[in-house]
Structures are given as structure tokens and as C-alpha cells.
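stage 2 :: seqdesign
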């Protein structure tokens, strides 16, 4: 770019000032263009490998370091690698999902994904022979042959004539295109993201892995959803949301009583949609294992929208209570609100009445209050109506009277058409209720702080905790496990004001069996799916065996056609048909039915194709209508051959047809895999997370085989469970490390993780840190 400024009839001073202004403008224009050059101007095509390279090229020339680096700002807040953050930035801009290529922005996480999958390709310096391709990642070191010293990562543009061209995000703090010889000793290896495996997102429950913007539509271009104070809603890290619809990489969900969209690349798949979403009248699976809560006015105003996102499949809501002093019956202060808000958020409900009945008449009055309230028609109960018998003042009544009181309440409720149930603790059920009270009634048993309910009778609802925590509810809440699909059971039996379904009609007779022998059938055999396609009169069938998971065919065999069976005589319609399939083989004109016929001008048949011949009347020599068929000759077994398997490639046994040489049968010979007896250690793993590398020589094919190794804490005599820093003793420092890990303030090495699950529950949580702290204070001993 240049400026030609021509002035006439002006002073030298004006010329000088104009020149200075031109220079200023020139610098400004260049500054503007330089900034624009580092924007992503590439339009994605859907070819992820090509798109990530194109995006990377738009950044060549960008210079920044430390806190000024936009890639680090985007992904790691100054705590990661500039080169890895650059790769993550390009992947995000190219639309590559984070489950294919890590967005964490550190070299360890970038390389670790491919190491865990075993898909790292070694370079020539590590005896690898892989040739990188467009879109691959390349890893560079400052220490030859040591993957633990990986210092830079880039994106491969191309590789030809043994020269690799790649874009790096951090060469002297700048985005630069570099060219390396493929045998350069600083190249450690490559990783090839499995772009082709990218699958669409599905509906289900997702857990956010960072704070996520909540938008009005499935695009970053859409406005953010606002709260009641007109502030943009941001869904916190670790929030579980239910995604009921998907558009591209975006999921439709509900949060804070608002509907909107989140980018699913910032959330991890958590579980299928909870059964709450799927409770339908035609769901006939009675055996379930659902999470239920029970609530009352003690929980104050509940945010049921948040509860619905907590995998809660039902709620039992207190409908009322009798006060022991005044002996009066009252509606629970939050019953109306709780029922309505739970319904709005698709959570089915039941109810319970807290009794302080001292007589049978007291119980009947309580039941009549419940029935009158429910018959108002404003509330629909999809779980039973429970009689909550637990008040300490009733113990003195004794087993017989308490049982009569319970039975009286249930009978009034049942006579009104509701399914009545009983809530009590295990000890109450064992000590204060007889068979008359509980016989054939739903039992809801409270037994806390045990691994399983030990009540010997029948029960369908177990209250296992009174100190649960559910988002949307202030303070503690009771947690329950339900084992019966009550919504279906109640509807199908006409309880709780549901209309009982009409009886099913008599079943219709089974249809005649399908006699079409050409339809494929299949069955499973070990880990194989066997598909049989029967042969017909004219077409080959087959027997195919394939791996159930991958679909790879491991054996195949053709079944020859059975051939037509021709009628001996011409039918009255002039047709000669196959007696098995009914196909018309010869059609004779009516005026020639009584004539003899002769075959002329035959077209020969092959192994797989039919031949044809024309039929003429012997008397008048006219060609008859239609052409007769010569059945295919079928394959005949011929040459057998074997392609031997190698360490890496499968082999095959084949049988070819002796006539046409087509493969008519084969089965796969699995590859043997490399076999090494002796290994040479190249680098050793250590307790700080550095992985090792060992090399062996395959005794079958002679190739070098590399295997990565991890540090094994069992190899260190003083490393024991709870000794997280592996210094030979368990101290408060170990608990502090665990607490920082559970708060996501630090990470643990693979060796440290093996020492961290001290309570042996299969996960690392604050409970492990608490136990380590107690051990360090000599308040507890690890088993």
C-alpha cells in the first residue's frame, strides 16, 4: 500500500505537514489490517481436518505472550500452554467437538486424550513409520526421544517429499508456519483426531463442565436469556440440566424457571432422560427404581423447576396434620402450592396425612378430611394416599388400637376410590401394626443410615435418609427409593379418580406363519450376529457372521439357488409354472396350447445368471408368447487358498468357484498381535505423572514395539493408601492435597489417584480427605 500525495501551490511547510499526516494514516491503516488478519475469516465446510487447518492459517502472524495471549485467555486463564491453547482455539473455531479434541488448553490434556486411547503415532526417532496427514497434531520436544519433555504442539498442514509443514501457535510467542524433515530428531510423534467418529448430540441429562451462557436460540448469535432483574443468566459449572431437544451442538433445556439453549460442547453427557420424562399410561414396566422426595410446609417455598432437574421421579406431599394439643385438623400450608408447581414441572405426586389419632373415630375424621380435599378435583394423586403413623404420643395406645386406627383411616380412603398406604418406621411396623392393618396395603418404610431396608414384610417405598440435599429445596429433605411404577399401576386399576380402562379385547388368533423363505433371519452366536438369507429358486442365499459391536464380517458362505421345479403339463391358462415359487416359466399362446413346441436360439446360463430360450410351435413355427428360463448353473467348489495372518493384519481362508473364480466362501484368520519376550526401558515413569516408554522386538515379525508405562505406587515400599504425597507417612498435608483436588484447584497423577480412594467407594471426594485427616490425627485407622 502507498500514498501519492500531490499538492500544488502550497508552501514547503504544508507539504511537510501533509507528508507527516500521510505517514500517520499509513500506520493507522496497517494497524487496522494487521488486527483484521488475525480474526478467523474462514467459513467452515464440515470437513473438520481441512477446517482446522484453514482456521489456523488465518492466525499466522499473531504475536502475543503471557496474559495478552487470546488463546490462553480463552481456555486456561494464563495457566496453560500457548501452543495447546492455540490448537484448542482452532478446533473450537472449526466446530470440532471437545470430545474429539481436548479444549483444556494444556499439553498434558491435549496429548493425554490420545495417549489414553492408544492412538499416538511415534516419529522416526522412536522407530515409528507414520506419515502425518492434514489435520493431524504434531508434538515437538527440546529433549530427543522423551515424550515427557514435550514442549510444543502444532497442526499439520501437509506432508510431502518427507517434509512436514505445520502451524504452531507459540514460536517465539507468535503463530508461525514451520517446515520439518520427517526424520527430524525433535519430532516426538503425532496424533490423528478421529474426526470421522463425531456423532450428533442426543437428548438426555448433561452436566456443565464450566459456566455456560443461557441463550434464546441454538447459536452464539442469539441473545442471552435474562432473569427477573434483566441480568443475563449464566448456568454454573457442575449443574445438571435436562436436554429435551437438540439442534446441532446446542441443547434445549430449562433453568431457573426459564427455557433456553446451551452449547453442549461445554457440558458432558450425564445420563438418559429420567423416568419422569417418560411416565406414560402405556408404560407397563411395573418394576422401577425411582428417586422420590417427601416434603411439607417445613421446606417453605420449593423451586420445583430446579427439583425437576435433579433426577427426581416423584414426590409425596403432606396434605394435612392433626395438632396434638388442640386436636384440630389443618391443611398443610404448602400443599396447594407444592401440588400445582410439581405438576407444572411434570413431577407426579402422592400425599400423606400426619396423624395424632387416639381413637378409631379420630382416624375416620382425618380420612374424611383427606378425601374431601382430594375430591375437590384440583389435585391428581399418581402415588398412594399415605397414613403417617409415628407420633410418640400414640405409643401408649398399644399395638391393637394403633392397628385399628390405621385400618379405619385406610378403609375410608379406599371406599372413596383412592389407593391407601401406610408410612412408618421399621420399628413401628414391627411393634405397633398387625396383619389386619397392613394386609395388601402399600407400605412406606423409614429406615435411615443403612445400606438396605431390612423390614421383613412387603414394601414398595423406602425412606433411606432424612438429611438429603436437593437443588431448589432449602435445608434437608427426606430421600426415598420407589420400587413400583405407581403412576401406571394406579391408572390401570382405576384408583385416585382415574377411570378404570376397559378390559382388553380377546386376543386375535396368531397370523399364519410367514412362508416367504427368501426373507433373512438372524440369531446371535457368542459375540457374533449370524444372518441367514435363504436361497430362492433362482437367487443365491448366504450365511454371514459379523462382530456384534463393529459389524465386521468374519465369515461368509453362499447358498446355491434351489432351482425351479417345472410343471409336467401346460395349464389351462397356457402357463407352465414353478411348483415351488409359482413363477411363470413358459407362457404359451392359447391357440398353440395343444401344439408341440420346440426350443430355439438359446442364451447360455452362467453361475449366477439365468439363460433364456425361445419356444416355437412345431406346427406353424410361430414364436410362442413369453420366453422360457434356463436356471443358473450355480457355483461349484474349486480352489482353496489361504492368506496368512500377520502380527497386525488379519488373514483369510478362501474358496473360489471352479467355473468363474468368484469367492464363494471365506473366514477370517485373526491377527496374532506382536509378541515380545524381552523389553528395553527407554524412559521410566515417576510419581510426578511422567509416563515411561519401553521397547521390545516382536519375535514373529521383528518389528520394534513401543509400550507406554505408568508409575506403579506398589513398586514403592513406603507408598500406602492415604499417603498422597508419597513421603512414607499420612499427614494433614495429604488431606489438603485431596481437598484441593475435589475443589478442582489441582490435579492428581495416576499414581496419586490410586492412593486417594481411602474409603473405597470407587470415587475421590471430600469424604476421603476427611478420613485422611482423621487418620493423621490418630482418630481412625485405615483397614
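stage 2 :: out
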Amino acid at each position: 500500500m502507498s500514498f501519492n500525495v500531490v499538492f500544488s501551490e502550497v508552501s514547503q511547510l504544508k507539504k511537510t505537514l501533509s507528508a507527516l499526516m500521510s505517514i500517520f494514516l499509513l500506520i493507522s491503516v496497517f494497524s487496522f489490517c494487521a488486527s483484521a488478519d488475525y480474526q478467523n475469516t474462514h467459513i467452515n465446510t464440515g470437513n473438520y481436518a481441512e477446517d482446522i487447518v484453514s482456521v489456523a492459517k488465518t492466525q499466522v502472524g499473531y504475536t502475543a505472550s503471557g496474559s495478552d495471549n487470546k488463546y490462553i485467555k480463552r481456555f486456561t486463564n494464563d495457566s496453560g500452554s500457548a501452543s495447546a491453547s492455540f490448537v484448542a482455539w482452532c478446533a473450537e473455531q472449526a466446530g470440532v467437538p471437545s470430545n474429539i479434541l481436548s479444549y483444556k488448553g494444556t499439553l498434558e490434556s491435549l496429548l493425554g486424550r490420545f495417549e489414553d486411547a492408544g492412538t499416538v503415532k511415534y516419529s522416526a526417532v522412536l522407530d515409528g513409520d507414520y506419515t502425518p496427514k492434514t489435520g493431524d497434531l504434531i508434538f515437538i520436544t527440546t529433549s530427543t526421544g522423551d515424550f515427557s519433555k514435550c514442549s510444543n504442539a502444532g497442526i499439520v498442514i501437509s506432508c510431502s517429499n518427507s517434509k512436514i509443514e505445520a502451524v504452531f501457535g507459540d514460536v517465539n510467542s507468535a503463530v508461525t508456519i514451520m517446515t520439518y524433515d520427517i526424520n527430524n530428531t525433535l519430532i516426538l510423534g503425532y496424533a490423528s483426531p478421529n474426526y470421522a467418529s463425531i456423532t450428533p448430540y442426543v437428548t438426555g441429562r448433561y452436566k456443565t463442565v464450566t459456566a455456560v451462557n443461557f441463550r434464546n436460540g441454538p447459536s452464539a448469535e442469539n441473545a442471552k436469556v435474562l432473569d427477573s432483574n434483566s441480568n443475563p443468566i449464566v448456568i454454573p459449572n457442575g449443574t445438571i440440566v435436562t436436554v429435551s431437544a437438540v439442534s446441532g451442538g446446542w441443547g434445549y433445556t430449562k433453568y431457573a424457571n426459564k427455557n433456553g439453549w446451551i452449547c453442549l460442547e461445554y457440558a458432558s453427557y450425564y445420563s438418559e432422560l429420567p423416568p419422569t420424562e417418560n411416565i406414560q399410561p402405556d408404560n407397563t414396566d411395573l418394576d422401577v427404581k425411582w428417586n422420590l422426595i417427601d416434603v411439607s410446609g417445613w421446606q417453605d417455598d420449593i423451586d420445583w423447576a430446579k427439583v425437576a432437574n435433579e433426577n427426581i421421579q416423584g414426590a409425596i406431599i403432606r396434605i394435612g396434620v392433626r395438632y396434638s394439643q388442640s386436636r384440630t385438623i389443618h391443611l398443610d400450608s404448602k400443599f396447594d402450592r407444592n401440588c400445582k408447581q410439581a405438576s407444572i414441572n411434570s413431577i407426579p405426586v402422592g400425599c400423606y396425612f400426619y396423624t395424632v389419632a387416639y381413637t378409631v373415630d379420630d382416624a375416620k375424621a382425618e380420612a374424611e378430611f383427606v378425601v374431601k380435599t382430594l375430591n375437590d378435583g384440583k389435585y391428581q394423586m399418581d402415588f398412594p394416599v399415605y397414613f403417617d403413623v409415628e407420633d410418640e404420643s400414640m405409643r401408649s395406645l398399644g399395638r391393637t388400637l394403633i392397628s385399628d386406627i390405621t385400618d379405619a383411616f385406610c378403609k375410608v380412603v379406599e371406599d372413596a376410590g383412592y389407593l391407601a398406604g401406610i408410612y412408618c418406621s421399621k420399628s413401628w411396623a414391627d411393634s405397633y401394626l398387625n396383619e389386619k392393618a397392613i394386609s395388601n396395603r402399600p407400605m412406606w418404610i423409614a429406615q435411615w443410615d443403612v445400606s438396605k431396608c431390612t423390614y421383613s414384610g412387603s414394601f414398595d417405598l423406602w425412606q433411606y435418609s432424612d438429611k438429603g440435599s436437593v437443588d431448589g429445596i432449602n435445608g434437608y429433605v427426606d430421600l426415598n427409593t420407589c420400587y413400583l411404577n405407581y403412576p401406571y399401576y394406579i391408572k390401570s386399576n382405576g384408583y385416585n379418580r382415574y377411570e378404570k380402562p376397559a378390559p382388553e379385547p380377546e386376543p386375535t388368533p396368531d397370523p399364519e406363519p410367514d412362508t416367504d423363505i427368501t426373507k433373512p433371519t438372524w440369531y446371535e452366536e457368542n459375540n457374533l450376529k449370524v444372518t441367514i438369507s435363504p436361497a430362492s429358486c433362482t437367487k443365491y442365499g448366504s450365511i454371514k457372521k459379523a462382530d456384534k459391536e463393529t459389524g465386521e464380517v468374519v465369515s461368509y458362505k453362499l447358498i446355491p439357488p434351489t432351482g425351479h421345479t417345472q410343471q409336467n403339463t401346460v395349464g389351462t391358462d397356457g402357463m407352465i409354472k414353478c411348483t415351488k415359487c409359482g413363477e411363470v416359466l413358459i407362457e404359451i399362446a392359447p391357440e398353440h396350447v395343444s401344439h408341440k413346441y420346440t426350443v430355439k436360439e438359446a442364451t447360455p446360463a452362467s453361475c449366477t445368471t439365468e439363460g433364456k430360450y425361445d419356444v416355437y410351435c412345431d406346427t406353424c413355427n410361430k414364436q410362442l408368447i413369453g420366453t422360457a428360463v434356463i436356471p443358473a448353473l450355480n457355483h461349484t467348489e474349486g480352489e482353496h487358498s489361504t492368506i496368512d495372518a500377520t502380527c497386525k493384519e488379519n488373514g483369510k481362508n478362501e474358496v473360489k468357484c471352479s467355473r468363474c473364480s468368484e469367492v464363494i466362501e471365506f473366514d477370517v484368520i485373526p491377527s496374532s498381535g506382536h509378541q515380545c519376550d524381552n523389553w528395553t526401558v527407554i524412559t521410566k515413569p515417576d510419581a510426578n505423572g511422567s509416563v515411561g516408554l519401553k521397547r521390545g522386538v516382536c519375535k514373529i515379525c521383528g518389528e520394534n514395539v513401543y509400550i507406554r508405562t505408568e508409575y506403579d505406587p506398589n513398586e514403592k515400599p513406603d507408598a500406602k493408601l492415604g499417603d498422597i504425597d508419597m513421603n512414607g507417612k499420612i499427614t494433614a498435608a495429604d488431606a489438603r492435597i485431596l481437598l484441593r483436588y475435589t475443589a478442582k484447584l489441582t490435579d492428581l497423577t495416576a499414581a496419586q489417584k490410586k492412593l486417594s480412594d481411602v474409603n473405597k467407594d470407587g470415587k475421590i471426594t471430600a469424604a476421603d480427605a476427611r478420613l485422611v485427616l482423621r487418620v493423621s490425627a490418630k482418630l481412625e485407622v485405615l483397614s
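stage 3 :: structure notes
- Residues 1-36, 274-282, 510-519 have pLDDT under 50 and may be disordered.
- The first strand starts at residue 120 and ends at 122.
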